[in-house]
Description:
The structure holds 3 protein chains of 3 kinds. Chain B is an alpha/beta fold.
Amino acid sequence: xxxxxxxxxxxxxLCVACKACVLACKAENAVPDGFCRDWLVEETRGEFPExxxxxxxxxxxxxxxxxxxxxxxxxxxxxxxxGAVLVTHDKCTGCKACIAACPYxxxxxxxxxxxxxxxxxxxxxxxxxQPACVSVCPTYCxxxxxxxxxxxxxxxxxxxxxxxxxxxxxxxxxxxxxxx
Amino acid sequence: xxxxxxxxxRIAGAGAGAAAVGSGLASRWWGADGDPxxxxxxxxxxxxxxxxxxxxxxxxxxxxxxxxxxTKIVGNPKHPLSRGRLCPRGTGGTGLLYxxxxxxxxxxxxxxxxxxxxxxVEWPEALDRVADGLKALRDKHGPEALALYTHGYxxxxxxxxxRAYGSANVAAPSYAQCRGPREAGFRLTFGQGVGxxxxxxxxxxxxxxxxxxxxxxxMHNTQVQxxxxxxxxxxxxxxxxxxxxxxxxxxxxWLPIKxxxxxxxxxxxxHVILAEGLYDHEYVEKYAVGLDKLREHVADKxxxxxxxxxxxPPEKIVETARFLAGARPASLVHPGRHVTWYGDDTQRTRAVxxxxxxxxxxxxxxxxxxxxxxxxxKYPYTHYGTEPKPPADVAKGHNYPFADETIASGVxxxxxxGTADYDIKGWLVYGTNLMLALPEPEKTKQAIQALDFIAVVxxxxxxxxxxxxxxxxxxxxxERCDELDAPPWRVPFAAVRQPVVEPMYDSKPGWWIARxxxxxxxxxxxxxxxxSVEYAxxxxxxxxxxxxxxxxxxxxxxxxxxxxxxxxxEPAFDTPSGKIELYSQALADAGxxxxxxxxPPEEPPPGMFRLLFGRSPVxxxxxxxxxxxxSQVMSSNELWLNRRAADELGLADGEQVVVVNQDEVRSEPxxxxxxxxxxxxxxxxxxxxxxxxxxxRFARGRGANDTRLVTRTKIDPLMGGxxxxxxxxxxERRQP
Amino acid sequence: MTGNLEVVTTRHNAAIDPVLSAWGWEIPVYLFLGGLVxxxxxxxxxxxxxxxxxxxxxxxxxMPFAALGLLSLxxxxxxxxxxxxxxxxxxxxxxxxxxxxSWGSWILLLVYPVAFLHGVGSLTAGQRETLLARRALAPLLxxxxxxxxxxxxxVLKTSxxxxxxxxxxxxxxxxxxxARPQWNTAVLGPLFLASGLSTGAAFLLLFRLDEREHDFVxxxxxGAILVELLLLGAMLLGFAxxxxxxxxxxxxxxxxxxxxxxxxxxxxxxLLVPLAMELIGRRRRLPLAALAPALILAGGFALRWVLLxxxxxxxxxxxx
Lengths: 180, 736, 320
Ligand SMILES: Nc1nc2c(c(=O)[nH]1)N[C@H]1C(S)=C(S)[C@@H](COP(=O)(O)OP(=O)(O)OC[C@H]3O[C@@H](n4cnc5c(=O)[nH]c(N)nc54)[C@H](O)[C@@H]3O)O[C@H]1N2
Ligand SMILES: Nc1nc2c(c(=O)[nH]1)N[C@H]1C(S)=C(S)[C@@H](COP(=O)(O)OP(=O)(O)OC[C@H]3O[C@@H](n4cnc5c(=O)[nH]c(N)nc54)[C@H](O)[C@@H]3O)O[C@H]1N2
Ligand code: SF4
Ligand code: SF4
Ligand code: SF4
Ligand code: SF4
Ligand code: SF4
Ligand SMILES: [Mo]
């Protein structure tokens, strides 16, 4: 296969749940008020004082087998370059089948009538920039890159670290990896 | 197995193979209009570098402007404090700039102070009114009767105005309500405070110890970056906090200490480190005095002794002492920042300083670097006249010998007639919301009512503006140029704040307001510059900096300097002995404990909890809680209460509760967060909520205001800091 | 919050959080009407195919036109649900075989001419005369009638197939959305088809059928209800035997928020009571003949409504 295979890694050991990624995404992508393309999940397990916390900056997983694309009747939801899953606004009817199909609830109806979600900031990737959330993150816990390139940061991290994806049982093949 | 349905449809579809092929063709063929990558188009047609003012850290930013509107703010990669990244608040400057509730015109009060009724006026009338107030004050009480409260970088013009006017009563709540004790404690020990930005070399630390300092929630950008860099390089982390903070969630050792007993833990750590000889012998020998006295002092401060006070198991105390000593000298016991907790704060931070001295971390890589600074010559202006009277920030008969800045709460008290050596009769307030920042807000109101005159310069109709005679609307940091920023740091640099867009409404930049007032009270000579840009560039030019580069990049970075002993700098200690003072003769001479002594704090009465507060990463105090952009990720505070304690009270997670303090002051209602993440003897909430100013149309009525519950403080006898973690509350279900 | 897990999230997207509610009343209405129309087509065409020489009541003859009207109402509901109504034509610029929504839009397009032809062929001689008397209609109608009559059996068969497709599709639409554990069951397609048959039958029973038609429809209805009960049982057993997310789906209907609606409206009032009434009614003609069909219709709608909202609320996430 040629071309990149975009993926993101989130180092949950470093993430401080500050939400800079959420706000930077909103600013970069003019995400309408009240909606977000990425979000924070802060989990605490255990019993005081034996507690364990995990912070995750979550977003669309740009699944390798994206059920949202399968469910879309118009082709608006599609797999674009590098495996990123995008929505073409003027093909979207707002039927919401893709929303119901996404196990991660990563999508929402944009007030403009189309379904919106994380684009992996492909408009930035195209010119060699990192996604807005990655480039703002003050803990350097987000990385974005090409899984097909063994020398990319994401490839390195996935070789070196223990990681998980969210709900692998759905079989969607998520491409956002949480380093533990 | 879960995903059978999807397989089914795929197989069924594939079975109809022709249909499958057809569908592929069809959607591609019919969909001839293609799938372009969507571009949100938020890149500016102009990008202006500047520095941030959403808090006091002053990170470099790049502001994208499109069709005259700021579309987004990103980090300036060239600026040493941001390195291209921002904390969550930094992105939110647009939420302030375009806040529909901004002050838009000068206001004059029409009836009683605090009544919130004003009439809009033009600038000349407002400025004349301020000038009349100042002239009358000078004539009647002398210039020292005027006080300036200022917090924020635009305040420099007003500080200058006050010195020219003849008053030394310049105060900020960021001293006696914040980092004052730490500065005093470190100055007493190392002859130097840690300043802001702090000279911690966290990035290179091999072990970090945090007492309270909740990095990650406390979001000073560079610190959080350094913290994360250290962790990613495998640094150890010890977090001492009654609450399972974000940082505690990353710690090798979380010590859920009983609030107010950190000094006991610190003394026990010192005990273990001395007893086991884990300290840096050579360093202490060379640089420090008083080791023997210290050794003697902590001989009985055993881990078992500390256990009784702190509730931390002795084994854990020993283990963590060895853990943090094992990483020395790159072992940083963080000095903290907001340390006005229990009134023993200078002594506690002195224990932190002593511990760092034993680890040999001051001046060392991975400890505290010895900062470098770009020297900026002053803009040439008329010299100030005679020395003003010393500030009236200490009540009659009191003395805080180790205070090195003016005590804001003291200046407030001095406004209540007869309290201090002389009365303060007028206030200028710049960029500080004293109603939320000073403890005992009823006292603040009493003080204001006694004033002849009060003017407030702000960007928002914050609570304090409701008490002003004159309200002057300042332009936000994105609309103005201020003083250059060249703090002591690991690399010397100077940054410029540049106007990104024209001032909105009838707002004016601080430099202009200060100059206009100066002109009206006969101090024009002190403000000879054309405007702040000319002022800033004159200084930059005089320092030999390239002004074009500064304007283009927003910052000029000097040559890297040697900043640690490893780099070859010899540390100098500005103490009486010229050495690190483990034992402080100065303290002994002033009648204080020369070595920190622990006194157990008062216990909360049965059924009550100690009230603790802190930061949210997305907000700065109450100054951003009206910021609608930032509020999208947090729009109210919650009351953290231990889950079991909540169960015992029959309170459920998420329900609305009211907090009532020992003086029966009731909080605004807020949601309960019943959580494992806090001890059961204290409750916690984020400071900055519970606004009641009617003009803050968004923030008003959201969450609870901790300041109203701080109806008592414990004053630090060394430097006058107001220990605020000394209030007790009970938690009640909100009555409908 | 489950057990010792505490979860805090910043995501509060409208209609997504805290539980998905992207689809409102429009979708169950559409699914219900779609199923009903499927039932009408299958039963109407089936009866004629099985008993080609029996006379048929006016009601049964008019059925295909009623089906067309009901289907249009359903499609209107679907249209109202679209967030970008002007883009509705996009459904017909693509056929996406992995998307039941796409199948559905094309099936709907197929059902219209089939049902129309089915209806035209069912017109009584009298009706035909009245229509042909209109000068404007005659030139078009005459060849159409001739063709519809000649191809009658083929039309009827197509009608059954279209009905089966439509009925199954209303279930598969949800059933393929495996992201929702509540819908992630093989039962949904046949269940909605059976329910479609039953509601179609019930709808017919509201009108004046002749004796034999009535018996035919009731027999099929009883059968459909029995199948439905079996399938619902299989669905619950399947959830019970499933993983954590399936357990969560089960909980919704057994103890959770939709338990009472499911058991009282769907199972008891919508299936068991009308079943009993129909079984008794076969022997003794009961007063209130319209009650059982009305209950079935309400139950059929309730089934779709409960499964739609519970399905949206079911999730793989560990926190509800
Ligand atoms: N996002 C954001 N960041 C900020 C600010 C902001 O407003 N917003 N403000 C900035 C300013 S000016 C300051 S001063 C700093 C303040 O930030 P810090 O200096 O970190 O503030 P503290 O009050 O020390 O920290 C509060 C923490 O101390 C814990 N604590 C309370 N009592 C005790 C105790 O007795 N012992 C111990 N060990 N821990 C205790 C609380 O549980 C809480 O986790 O933050 C700065 N950073
Ligand atoms: N109860 C309680 N009290 C505390 C604390 C606490 O945690 N709890 N924390 C203490 C600490 S650590 C500190 S540092 C202090 C901080 O106290 P303050 O510095 O007073 O902080 P804020 O309350 O945010 O007030 C900032 C004010 O400045 C205004 N402002 C913002 N930008 C500008 C500008 O560009 N120009 C002008 N003119 N005004 C502007 C805002 O509208 C707001 O009114 O509070 C202390 N007091
Ligand atoms: S910006 Fe980075 S550290 Fe902050 S919440 Fe997002 S991923 Fe976590
Ligand atoms: S996370 Fe959801 S929206 Fe994103 S590709 Fe996967 S299924 Fe589609
Ligand atoms: S809402 Fe838009 S993107 Fe989603 S399935 Fe429907 S047409 Fe496709
Ligand atoms: S990659 Fe871009 S669109 Fe996706 S969450 Fe990050 S900033 Fe938002
Ligand atoms: S730390 Fe955040 S709010 Fe403070 S100056 Fe830096 S970016 Fe701005
Ligand atoms: Mo502070």
